[in-house]
Amino acid sequence: MGNNERKHLEKYNKSDKFAVNEFIVFRTNQLNLRQADLANTTNIDKAIISKYFNKKRIPTDKDLRKLSKPLKVSEEVLLMLGGYIMPPKNQKRIIDELETIKKELNKYTENIKLQEKLEDANLKKYMHEEIKLNKKEKEFIQEYMEFIKYRRERGNK
Prior knowledge:
elongated, mainly alpha, single chain
């Protein structure tokens, strides 16, 4: 790694040094791969792959090149996400690939938000249903509410 690349990596590391790790985890989940699959197809030690997943280590440029194939992204994109500077040979292809990844990430985020909204709507619907409770059930709910209040008060001290 040259001095310019090292300086860029140091600057990048101060901002969000594990962005490439997060992308690797995201892409692995998206492709239904396991850590063992990555280790087997790349010949990267399983312990090192685990460190990448747990944000204990940033992938080397050599490992990013190996990971590009099973993650189905170009080496250039992974290297850029990893903070390595490299002169893009095919800028348009790289930009298009980054745009595709951005769309996939946005779609993934939208799906999570939609799922959360549905869960909230179901919870609100459940809370507004008319439920007939007997005396013991009402007492139990009252005791539980008091217990929650007690725990919250203790947690705030």
